[in-house]
Amino acid sequence: MISPLAFVHPDAKLAPSVEVGPFAYIEADVEIGAGTVVMAHATVLTGTRIGVDCKIFPSAVVGAIPQDLKYKGEYTLAIIGDRTTIRECATVHRGTASKGKTVVGNDCLIMAYCHVAHDCVLHDHIIMSNATQLAGEVEVDDYAIIGGGTLVHQFTHIGEHVMIQGGSRVNKDIPPYSIAAREPIQYCGINSIGLNRRGFTREQINSIQEIYRVIYSPMYNVSQAVEHAMTELPASAERDVILSFIKSSPRGILRSAVS
After folding, report:
1. Residue 118 known to be catalytic
2. What is the CA radius of gyration of the chain?
């Protein structure tokens, strides 16, 4: 299962069913789970942990040291979950002393030429379209979809089930279930199509819409809107997810394009 033209360090730990293509390069202190395929010319460096049934495409690099001048050679990790695909020329760097690891979750698709910088945390079922660039310590929640060529500022938090327009420049937190688009980037409504595809009921989608009607009402500032939504709107899991996200956002959330 390992091409004789590949380099695999003898201290790397590969499950017996791992496939390694010609001219792939795998360093020591690497662990790769069953069924994963490391294709030709892919590079997997020290401190990388890759789960089962992943696909690492040609010229991808996983586990390179951070592009952070504060990095002083400390031991850190790059962790890739199960069934995740990393396409051609994408890069996932290790963490720094800040968090100690960069994490990409399960069932993610990192398309060609994307970059996941040090200490980022990507949860599950995330799609990063071609050439999207995440700066350090970005967090992306479940089922977010980031359009191609998007640039994400360091420390930004992208909520679950978010859809971001391609070519966007993200410099504020993007709250859950929303669509972010335009230039400069703004809240443009909720991701109703994505929510419907993922099994949200009409009642849940209407509830989310009502919550954001309050959050982005011109009658309130953000703090007042959160308080009003907490006291006046019916309790729901979606309401609590949205309000918790906003209250824990040090960067602040997007402004609204919706009147």
Report:
1. yes
2. 20
Q: In angstroms, rounded to a whole number, what is the distance separating the alpha carbons of residues 87 and 39?
A: 10
Helix (H, G, I), strand (E, B) or coil at 155: coil
Residue 11 annotated as catalytic: no
Q: Are strands 178-181 and 157-158 parallel, antiparallel or unpaired?
A: unpaired
Residue 23: count other Cβ atoms within 10 Å of its Cβ. 16
Identified catalytic residue from 33, 47, 51, 136: 136
Catalytic position from the list 68, 82, 119, 142: 119
pLDDT digits (tens, 9 = 90+) for 55-112: 999 999 999 999 999 999 999 999 999 999 999 999 999 999 999 999 999 999 999 9
Burial 187-201 (b: 16+ CB within 10 A, else e): bbbbbbebbeeeebe
SS3 93: strand
Which residue of the set 41, 93, 118, 157 is catalytic?
Answer: 118
Cis peptide before 184 (omega within 30 of 0): yes
DSSP codes of every residue in 34-54: TT-EE-TT-EE-TTEEE-TT-
How far apart CA 53 and CA 134 sit, in angstroms, is 24
The single-letter DSSP state of residue 65 is: P
Q: Where does 81-211 show beta strands of DSSP type E?
A: 85-86, 91-93, 101-104, 109-110, 115-116, 121-122, 127-128, 133-134, 139-140, 145-146, 151-152, 157-158, 163-164, 169-170, 178-181, 186-190
Q: What is the pLDDT of residues 179-203, one digit of tens each?
A: 999 999 999 999 999 999 999 999 9
pTM: 0.96
